[in-house]
Design brief:
CATH topology of the largest domain: Immunoglobulin-like
Helix content: 25-40%
Largest sheet: 6 strands, mixed
Structural class: alpha+beta
Number of domains: 2
Radius of gyration: 27 Å
Number of helices: 3
Shape: elongated
Order of helices and strands: HHEEEEEHEEEEEE
CATH superfamily of the largest domain: Immunoglobulins
CATH class of the largest domain: Mainly Beta
Number of strands: 11
């Protein structure tokens, strides 16, 4: 008789309502986890296909490619192509704002710059150009040292500036 009372209380309306609420909470949790995994795959929580950005200056002299969402202390890459209007120039200069330099640790710059000088709010990198080359491609590999927005600019020898930014997730 005690077993019949226990079974009856498990099938009561109050227990069924509680069980339905648990099922709803479980389904909501599964949907939330699925959305988080989907966001991570697409790159909304770090580098991925939706965060890759190509930006071009107004006169088309600077092209920059980078991820708009990056991770703290994870390897990151900024690819810059600078076109020069002077075809006979043997060197090309590229300026990076201090706001970038202060927030990242640069691991490598390819090709290696000939000189690095400080000029106001920028570091100017000088590169030798191959004879007949009309553009310079520079790859900067770095790690972010801070969370949040990192806003910076890239400047060419001709003075054209390209404003860039990325968000650094923990």
């Amino acid at each position: 008789m005690a077993a019949e009372n226990q079974t009856a209380s498990l099938e009561s309306a109050a227990n069924l309502r509680r069980q339905k609420r648990e099922w709803i909470a479980e389904r909501c949790g599964k949907v939330l986890m699925l959305l988080i995994v989907l966001a991570a795959i697409l790159g909304l929580l770090g580098p991925g296909p939706l965060t890759w950005s190509t930006q071009v200056s107004s006169d088309q002299s600077i092209h920059a490619e980078h991820h708009r969402v990056q991770r703290y202390q994870a390897p990151a890459e900024l690819v810059i192509q600078v076109a020069s209007k002077e075809e006979q120039a043997s060197t090309a200069q590229l300026g990076l704002s201090r706001s970038l330099i202060d927030q990242v640790t640069i691991e490598s710059i390819i090709p290696r710059p000939q000189t690095v000088t400080s000029h106001g709010d920028q570091l100017l990198y000088s590169f030798s150009r191959a004879t007949g080359a009309d553009e310079l491609r520079v790859v900067i590999r770095y790690q972010n040292n801070d969370f949040g927005w990192c806003k910076y600019s890239v400047t060419s020898l001709e003075g054209q500036t390209l404003a860039l930014s990325h968000f650094v997730c923990p």
